[in-house]
Amino acid sequence: MTPESGAAPTQRAGIDPRGPRFSAAITSVLLLAVVVLAVGGLGVAALVLLALLAALFAWGAIAGVARHPFGLLCRALVRPRLAPPAELEDPRPPTFAQLVGLVVTGIGVVLGLVGIGVAVPIAAAAAFFAAFLNAAFGYCLGCQLYLLLVRARVIRTA
């Protein structure tokens, strides 16, 4: 409780905004590898790697970006070497972006499993585009979609 208001502060826990960018950098490299493998004739390896990435997106969407393996890696290895962030970011938009990544890569995996092999590099390329935008420019397409859906009142916030 704060003495001025008599109420408990309602500060929401945030995440370091550099964490999702770090994760997006690793993800974009792996998605580019999927595209190269698929175009290079190694469709099974591409499908397996895309399925692994879909599982990682599911992990981020369910557990949240703070508990994602790449986020934990960033927190353990990168963040201690950097100055504290100027401000923290709401984890809900990047978590929603993980769900969008899961949908895109999941569709590629399912279509690849039913024999539509061209879906694997297409899904990987689409996800790569979004991950690269986040890693290189800090522009998160999934986060922007989240904000659009909040404004349209499709997603309700507390």
TrEMBL record:
<dbReference type="Pfam" id="PF14340">
    <property type="entry name" value="DUF4395"/>
</dbReference>
<feature type="transmembrane region" description="Helical">
    <location>
        <begin position="22"/>
        <end position="50"/>
    </location>
</feature>
<feature type="transmembrane region" description="Helical">
    <location>
        <begin position="126"/>
        <end position="149"/>
    </location>
</feature>
<keyword id="KW-1133">Transmembrane helix</keyword>
<keyword id="KW-0812">Transmembrane</keyword>
<feature type="domain" description="DUF4395">
    <location>
        <begin position="15"/>
        <end position="151"/>
    </location>
</feature>
<protein>
    <submittedName>
        <fullName>DUF4395 family protein</fullName>
    </submittedName>
</protein>
<keyword id="KW-0472">Membrane</keyword>
<feature type="transmembrane region" description="Helical">
    <location>
        <begin position="99"/>
        <end position="120"/>
    </location>
</feature>
<dbReference type="InterPro" id="IPR025508">
    <property type="entry name" value="DUF4395"/>
</dbReference>
